[in-house]
Structure formats: structure tokens, C-alpha cells
């Protein structure tokens, strides 16, 4: 075995620093690694030797032959040199000689770009500068670049001399300050774009070109999206033969800009221009060539005949694109998901999937997870032990394929170099594998990534199915810890096996001293070389990559595995992924909605299990924590939906063990063990209610009253460490009830708002609101929990201290204070003396402009706080004020946006992007609205609403939905507007469905669990309530004859739903029933649970339900 070699740390890069504050950190080839000012990282993505950076300086040259780019800074750019005083790029392309010289000035920098025309005819030249902007700490930017970008406000200022000036402000404070940058071309800015989607364009249609340099000019309007990237264009000018054109770019930085950007801010640019000295731009010595552009090889667009030859014809839920071509489909009974290149080219978010090894459902630290991206990233973010703290492979940090060497990539070596596989002709996902089919000129290649259902390992295999053998290069971007480039880690080689290990002081190794990863060749004879990033042309002592090179072969395979300790197989592990395909299915009615529902159920079970056992997502790819609110909603409800009471019990033990001793509350979130001491101490005011609700969910479903006597530890609020003073779950419950009483606003039974409620965007911006404001939704939830605890107390025979009379008091105060003029307020703010106050998010609200909020209305109905008449009244309000073409919206209009400064709510007033909760449609809230509809018996609306959050066949229910991945949960429906201002101006059009909507962040949400639980317990109406089985389907007439298969107490059960005279038959026997009590409508059937269980067989069961 070779001596261990260090994995590259960015702090050891051979950087050339230009300037002081801001200071540019360049690699010797001109790649911008970082642009810093004190603790602020101005750029968004750190540049690296192999992956490059997003910084661009270029010329756009146009003549009779068309438009072409001359790149100075960026892949394929010019020769570079730099010192502490200046940096220079030089190149000559097709008769155009170009130079760019950067020189720092006070609080900023200037770049002088010159173009000399050596052609025999005139050309039109335009200079372009593009820079990704984060304007935050390096830690925050790298935690999530998309989230960071959503809070960078880009503001256009029209100046008579400078033209389009772009000011960018980070709206999330950095140590109490708001970093800010303003930029323009001194001779005049003609156009601009502010997000990478406009400048670079989709990777499948771009190839190695940049849309903003070769296509039409920049759109010239602000777009607030997820990759902050101001690109500004100088005024074009005609350059005659032999002439020289000069253009100067200027930028000014401020560490703190408390106010929103405005017209007066351009003054600082004019002052800087006026103060510019007579500048000399000496060219530093030691010129070095820029890295060449990466050659990408995409698969051909497949024909239908080709797809059928590859995958057969057993397809369902086929998606046809606007041009008539197939976009996606589901294959076979296992519902493998097929996606074509045409669909990938049209989807805003590239297709991807998280795979997890093992066969157990629970959250343990001995399984492996990996993320596969359709666009040629065969594995990435591969981790074992914890999805954040112990990683082998680097993540994909942007969705445009710009930093092409993250994760595992495969290239084909040819006479011209290496062509890296990009978007395939077709991509197929199953619950445990992904396949890429590349139909190329003269060759068809199939790549498969698969995780084991046993050991923590994954494999990548490639087969040349048609055509000649080829030489392949397989690169792996290495982490060896938490974040690439920031960890002490090492790699050792033993033949064609690599061993990667995090440093001994890393978080992972402190808990798992023997933790390591291995990458090994399945057939070593297929390989010719193994090494580091020098195999990619980057010589350095440390390596950022592991690279395999094959001989000319038709197939090869690699196994990637990781261990936190010696792996021990679980002899009784339940095959969770196989069970997911049959845990809950529907059929029996030839309706596209039924086909779509059956297609998505296995996938939402998959999504929910990932969220539970390996909590992270595709956009929210950092994770590994349980949010107390999330795990006790989506995870618990998913586990109940798939008949896993045992896992719910284990989950509740873990959650209650993190309850704080003494105070009785919980952290907002805590990391999975053994890192549970990493947690967020302060929490939103609703958090302690959710463990109590989940406890009731569990015992109502299981009748496990003995669980109340289970001994469970506590957590110390100061150290976040376990306290070895176990008490019963009942004592934990009593502590939580005591906390609730203490947190009520004085003189009332209404819980104070604290740090917020479910809607994270509405955290209070003013300290006094934490104490004097009440969330009507939180109060309604508290009433629901208290009433259910009362029933638990009565049925268990165990008294719960502090419970008596609490729910009645909440009911009285709710109606006294929170229902104003017959309408439930969103919030209520008490005066200092507590004797009066005023509602917010209510028709009387003159402060926010928002008059209706969905959450309190639906929760008040779900909890039974409203009378039948009040429920019907609020249902009318919801339909008239809160329903949109894509479903139920959080409020009747978005919160006001003023460029970033906030008055009442934190994120709602500071997010520059109209997305996620800010976009006012959150799928989780829509699902709870559907729960409300089921309680009211609104069959048709419930059926429609279910389709509106099912990505399969979505355009049937939401015709204006843009293409999106069809096998993953999307957390929001984001209107395709450019910014908050357009959203406010055109909100009525958004509601009416006149503006297209895109899918939001994927997978990491409680939503998949809520969806599955809703289908089983509300739509199909199959649930337990202590000693009764409730059969209460809420199905539309068109679903007459629907069938479902599921498990009940571990036994297979088929259920058939019919219209007719009310009756229930189980295995051919009529079952005696009573009517379930219900406050708002006629109830369903109620069956004695013991009788129901006695009629079940071990192998096959048929339940027939007839409803009027």
C-alpha cells in the first residue's frame, strides 16, 4: 500500500493575492478562487484547480459571420499573470487581440479591457463581466448556495452616464451588517442579467458554450433565482480594422448597507470614477495559460422505438411533451421512472435521486447514501455514518453543469483528449439504482449506479452495449469529511483499491475512530492506471480527485463502500425498499388520476424514508438532522401509513430523550446520533406541541398504553448532552404541558408566538412580538393536542398533571380574542397591558396588507374549535380568498417586500426570490388543507387537491405547471416571475393560473409522509382509533370500484370501495358497525378492533366497503 497522500485543502492552494480589501485570490492559471473582504466571501462558489470558477471576462464579437466569444477569464481564456498590484489576462482569437487588466482601488476594483481588431473588416465589440455573488460568510455560502442566492437582492439603477447599474445587497445579516456591491461599465452599460440561468443557460442545450456570449444579448431585467450571477455588458462599439477599443469595468463594495438599494447609491460609483488616478497597468511576469474548456458528450435524443427496445412496453403514466415526444413514463409494477433527454432539457431542475443502502427503515449510522444526477454525475455526496459529517464524494453545488468535476464522472479518451459523459439519451430510476443510456455516434453505453440492500456500499458499472471498446477515465471529487477543500483527510492506494480516511480530529473520526471509505475495482484487469488529480492534468502534492483509467474495454465496475465500524448484517432486517413498492397501492378504476396516484405512492414512500432515515434533499443537500416538528409529522405519519408502529415507538423515544430537563421544551432540531448534541436551542413556539401530537397519533393507532410508563432520558439545555435521569413518558408529557401553561400570554390560555410558528418565513423581526403576539394557528394546534391528551388520559386511566380545564380555557380565549368579526386572524398582537390588541393578517389589518391566512382556518377546523356554521363560513373564505389555480395558498397575498429591510417578519420581507414559503404556496400546507377537506367531507375538492401535489400527470389538474421531475415530492409551487415586485404586481394573475408555476425544492420535507398518510387514513379512510377501526372513505363518485392493497397488522389486505347501501364485509362476512362521531358531517363506519383482527388471515384478506 502506498503512503497516505493528503486530500487537497484550499488553504494550501498556491494562491496569488491581488489587492487588500477586497482581495482577489487567484490560482496561477487565472481561475478566481475567492474574492474576500474581511470575513465576507463576495463570490458564491469557491474556484478550484480542477473544477474552475464561474468568474468570466469576455468580449462578444459580431460581424457578418455571426456572434462569437473571445474569453479572457474563464475556461479557454487567455494567458494569465498577477501580483499584489494587478492581474492580467491576454489572448488572441480569430484576429481579435484582447487584454484585461484588473487593478484594485479604494473599496473596489477596476478592470480595463482592450480589443484590437487585426481583421480586414470592422467588427462590433461588447465587453462582458460576470461574477457569482454570495456576499456572506464562506460557511454560509457553502452551506447552501441556492439559499444564499435567494437573499441577494439585485437592483437595477438607470444612470444617464453609466447606463444600467447593478447594486446587489445580501439581505441576511452578516454579524449585523448587510454586505453590498455595485458595478457598471464606465463608458456605459448596455445590458445585464442577474442569475446564471440567463447567462449560462441549460447545460443540455448549451454544450461548452455560454448562452450569454453567443446567443441574443442579455435580457436586461432583474431575475431573482438560485444562482446569483450579475453579468453586465458594455455598450457595443464598431471597431474598424487596426483600431483599439477600451472599456472599463468598475465595482465598489460596502461592508454594510443598512438601507435597500436605491438611485442615490450610484453616487459612490461616480465618486470612485472621479477619484481614479491616472492608472498604469503593468503586466506582471510569469504568464500561465488558462485551463481549456471541458468537452461534454451528451446522448442523442431517443426515438420511441429506441426507448421500447431498451425498456420494453410495460409503461404507465406516460408524459408527452409539447412537441409530441415522450418526456417520461413509469415502467412495470415497480414503477421505475424513465426520463428522456428531451424532458431533462425542458425541466428547470435537473433530474436526480438520492439512493440509500440497507434494508431497514430506521435512522442508523451504518448505511450509505449517494446522490445520482441525470446529467452525468453518477454518484455524488456519498456518505456513511452521517449525510453531512462523513462524506467521500463532493456535492453538485450548482445546477448548470459549470463545475464539472464534483462527484463521480466518466469520460471517454480519444485522439483530442477526454470527452465527459453529460446528459444521457435516457435515464431510469428505481428505489435502489439509476441507469444512464448514452446513444452516441457509433456507440451505445449503459452506466448503472446501485446501492446494496445489505452492506453500506454502492457500485458503478459501465457496459458498451453497441460499438467498439473504449478507454475510460473515471474521476471522483473527494471530500473525506464534511466539505471539500476544508478537511484534513488522506488517500492511500493498494493496487486498484483506494482507501480514503478523514483526519483523526474530524467530527466523524472522533465518534468513529476506524471510519474509512474504499473504492475498488471489481475487475482490476480492466484498469490501466490509478492516481490523483495529476491524471486530469493538475500536478500538486495533495490531490482533490481519485482517478481511474481503463484500457480499451467494453465494461468495467467500481465498488464504493464506507464503514463507521465493522459491518454486522442484520439478520431480521425488513426489506424496506421492496416493501415500499407494495405498502400502499391503488387500482381498479381506469382513471388517469388513479394511475398517477399508484405511480407516485412507492416514490413518496421512498422520499419519506430518505427524509426520515437520511435527512437531506437535492437542493437542501446538507442535513442529517431531525427537526422536532418534521420528524413528528411527516416521518411519524409515513410510518403509520406503512404499518410500522415499531419504528414510530423508537422515534418517539428518541424525540422525547431530547426534551430539555427543567424547562420541558425541545430544540428546534437536533442531529442524528451520535451527533445529537449539535442542535438549535431556540425554537418556534409550536415545537413542543408536535411530540405530544405524535404520541397521541401512535397510541390511538396502537393502543400501546404501556408506552406511557417507558423510561426515557432527558437533555441538558446548557450542554445539549443527555442527562441520565430517566423518567416515564408520562412525566415528559406533564413537563410539556407545564411548559405550555407557562408560555401563555398573561391572563389567557393562548400560547405566545415566541420565535415563530410553522411558517418559517414569518419569524418576528421585532423582539416585542415574541412576547405580545399570538399565532392563531399555534393556539388551534394546542387545543387539538390538549383535547387528544384528555382522551388519552381517560382511556389509559393515567392522570396528566396540569391538563384539567386547559382545553376549555383555550377554546374560550380563542373565540374571545382570535376570531374577530367572525374571521380567524392570522395573528393577534396584545397591547402592553394585555387588555386589548389588534389582529394581523385579517381584514382589519392595515399594517401588512394581508387579510387572510390559511393555517389558522384549516387547523381550527381540524381541531374541532369551530362550530359547524363557523367551519362552513371559513370554507367559503378559503375558496374565495385563498384558493388558486394550483391549490391552497398560505395567504391572500404575499408579504410586502421593500428591497430587504424588514418591519414585522424576518424572511418574508427579506427574501429577494419569490420561492418556497415566500411564494405563498407550500405543498405541506396544501396537504393539511386536504386533511381539512376530508374532515368536512368535501370529496371532489379533496380528490382534485390530491392531484395538485402529485407530480405525475400534474398538468391535468394544474395546466400551467412547468415540466418537473415526476417521481419526487416538490415542496412548493413557485410562480415563474422574475422578482418580488412582479409577484406583487401580478399576484392576481398567479392566482388565476395565468403565470406558469415551477416545482420548488425536492424530497427533503414532511410532505411525502403527510401525503401517504392522507391517502390511507383520509381519502381511503382506513385508520384505527384506540379499540375501534374507522372505515371512513372520502372518495368521489368517479372512484367507484377503487381498490387498494396495503398491510394491516403485518397482514396483506385488499380493500374494494363501492357505492351502494352501507355495508362492510371482511373475508366474506358481514361486519357489525356503528357510526363514527363527527362534528361537521355524517361519520363513517366504526368496527370493534378485536373483531376486525379476529377476521384477518395471515396470507390474504378482502375488505369490501359500501358507502352511499
TrEMBL record:
Lineage: Bacteria, Pseudomonadati, Verrucomicrobiota, Verrucomicrobiia, Verrucomicrobiales
Pfam families named in the record: Glyco_hydro_94, SOGP_2nd, SOGP_N
Gene3D superfamilies referenced in this protein's UniProt entry, alphabetically: 1.50.10.10
Glycoside phosphorylase super sandwich domain residues: 329-557
Xref: InterPro entries: 6-hairpin_glycosidase_sf, 6hp_glycosidase-like_sf, GH94_catalytic, GH94_Enzymes, SOGP_2nd, SOGP_N
Residue ranges of domain Glycosyl hydrolase 94 catalytic in the record: 686-957
Domain SOGP N-terminal: 25-242
GO MF terms, alphabetically ordered: glycosyltransferase activity
The name this protein goes by in its record: Cellobiose phosphorylase
Signal peptide range in chain numbering: none
Keyword hit for Calcium: no
GO terms (BP aspect): carbohydrate metabolic process
Swiss-Prot/TrEMBL keywords: Glycosyltransferase, Transferase
Coiled-coil blocks: none
